[in-house]
Design goal:
A hairpin with a 3-residue loop joins strand 1 and strand 2. The protein starts with a helix and ends in a 5-residue tail after the last helix. By secondary structure, the chain is mainly α. The longest helix has 25 residues. This is GntR family transcriptional regulator. Keywords: DNA-binding, Transcription, Transcription regulation.
Length: about 220
């Protein structure tokens, strides 16, 4: 494997750990710790760190060290704005082309979410939340748009992962909104589904007080 390949591997592993909050916002971490954690050489790790710094996920402070960046709500809201505009258009497009088998696939996703929620498994519920949204990009053959959004939504996704740590978070509200979106899709109601998706993504702002209240130290 080349140095570039090792660098890419280090970059993706560290980035995923930051997004999933395995590395916490504001946490100090050294290059030596990354090398030990990843079992990858110093040079590719250094290059990965520089790339993550350029993307705003790491902060390097002279004489202080390297830190995981805190969550920036302005960037979260800007990412949510872009996703809301794109996703509202994509679900409307899906209404015009989706078939019964695909509608059934979406129903199964939401049904599994309901089962996991009843069993208290918010991690699995969250994984299926990703699958729920990705579903519409697959139906409309917009997978490259979805991949692009994942890169754009780094701070948004960190924020969303933080909701997993909030005590008494209202997962039932998310589930009900997913059922409402499913029913609108089944009814082929384009105006309703666009409105529902927009309202659904507004949960980012609606949940802010609960998330910030418990984890204010993770925010800029």
């Amino acid at each position: 494997m080349t140095i570039a390949s090792y660098k890419d591997e280090a970059y993706h592993i560290i980035k995923e750990k930051i997004i999933r909050l395995e590395l916490l916002p504001g946490e100090k971490i050294s290059r030596k710790q990354f090398v030990s954690m990843l079992d990858i050489g110093d040079t590719p790790v250094r290059e990965a760190i520089l790339q993550l710094k350029r993307e705003g996920l790491l902060v390097i402070r002279p004489q202080s060290g390297t830190f995981i960046s805190k969550i920036n709500m302005q960037q979260v809201r800007e990412a949510k704005f872009v996703r809301e505009k794109l996703e509202s258009a994509i679900v409307v497009e899906a209404v015009g082309i989706i078939d019964d088998a695909q509608i059934e696939s979406l129903r199964q996703i939401v049904e599994m979410q309901e089962i996991y929620l009843k069993n208290g498994n918010s991690e699995k519920f969250f994984e299926l939340d990703e699958e729920f949204h990705q579903f519409f990009y697959l139906v409309t053959d917009k997978t490259h748009v979805y991949t692009w959004l994942l890169d754009l939504n780094v701070h948004l996704n960190r924020y969303r992962h933080l909701t997993l740590k909030v005590k008494d978070f209202d997962w039932m509200n998310i589930l009900q909104q997913h059922w409402d979106i499913y029913e609108a899709l089944k009814a082929k109601d384009a105006d309703l589904i666009a409105n529902l998706v927009s309202r659904h993504l507004d949960l980012v702002d609606e949940n802010y007080e609960a998330v910030y209240g418990e984890f204010h130290e993770y925010f800029d």
